[in-house]
Amino acid sequence: MPFADRQRSQLNWVVRKVLSYFAAPRLNMREDYEKVRRRQRQLAVLPHPSYRALDVEIMSADGDHPIPVRVFHPRERQRDEVLLFFHGGGWVTGDIESYTPACATMADLTGCVVASVDYRLAPEHPFPAGLEDCLRVAELFLADPTRAGAEPDDEVILIGDSAGGNLTAAVSLALRERGEPGARRQIMLYPVTHWDHDPSTSPFASVRNHGDDYRLTNTEVQDYFDLYVPDRAERAQPLVAPLMAEDLSGQPDTLIITAELDLLCDEGEAYGSALEAAGNVVRVHRVNGALHGFIALPRFSRSLREAYEHINAFLDGREEHAASATAAETT
């Protein structure tokens, strides 16, 4: 089985107590999302390593609005792939400014061009607005990678973290439903794949075990859903909760990376199992001891570097790396 060991690593109570201090402030996201956005913009202007980037705009399918895309070039390009990135933030916060350091790091550590999509956010633009923006950019970039400053034959790979991982899965499902060519590969970092994050009803132990103490809370996720999909009856549809899809066949080769101390850990891994059961090629790696959102950590972070080891192995198609890593995890 190419999946992460289901046995949790043992952290003593002192370590868990220290980690709990890094938990996000207990905000009411339904009221405080604008405050969070302002804070993210303030952090985005802080000095960070230099990077090479180009801002482009893609017109929406209906011609109603432009969709900003920031294209990052690595200091040394080592691969022909283009990573089309959908950022996290619960579909409510985050943008290409706040994710600029993470995307610059992604470009340098993979040697790939990275194109970050500034899709519309809820609650001003609830579902399916953000998904439509991501889908529009994916369609155009998959058809013509030169829009990202790449070569015509370069491969475009979908990638996203958290809510962006959800959008990655949804874009691939939507492209298949439309009968359009999809990406050959996709990468999801601690994705949202299910609609229920109430610890009293969720089918996942990680929601109950890690929904109060660490980086992301059950309440915050439920607030995000209230803003992104106000109609509760719509939340179980596959383009919101990909794990609910009845047919997951014909999906791209997939890498899913989860964080052990994240309430989304189990649903991300469950999506990997469901994709494999539908006949897709899937790798799942759990970063033990990691919190939600580790893609934004400094480059020297153990969690970040471990994740990129697996991302780069996936990009290189190194099956032997995945097999040896899985064997090490399960011992």
Give structural notes:
InterPro entries: AB_hydrolase_3, AB_hydrolase_fold, GDXG_lipolytic_enzyme. Pfam families: Abhydrolase_3 (PF07859). Residues 83-295 form the Alpha/beta hydrolase fold-3 domain. This is Alpha/beta hydrolase. There is one protein chain. With 331 residues, this protein is an alpha/beta fold. The chain has a single domain, classed as Alpha/Beta hydrolase fold, catalytic domain (Rossmann fold, 3-Layer(aba) Sandwich), CATH 3.40.50.1820. The chain is built from 10 helices and 8 strands. It has an 8-stranded mixed beta sheet with strand order 1-2-4-3-5-6-7-8, sandwiched between helices. Helix 8 (265-277) links the parallel strand 7 and strand 8. Helix 4 (129-143) packs across helix 5 (163-178). The longest helix is centred in the first third of the chain and has 16 residues, at 29-44.
Keywords:
Rossmann fold; Alpha/beta hydrolase; 8 strands; globular; GDXG_lipolytic_enzyme; 331 residues; hydrolase activity; alpha/beta; 37% helix
Brief digest:
With 331 residues, the protein is of the alpha/beta class. It has helices at residues 13-20, 29-44, 100-110, 129-143, 163-178, 205-210, 218-228, 265-277, 302-316, 319-329, and strands spanning 52-59, 66-73, 82-86, 113-117, 156-161, 185-189, 253-259, 282-287.
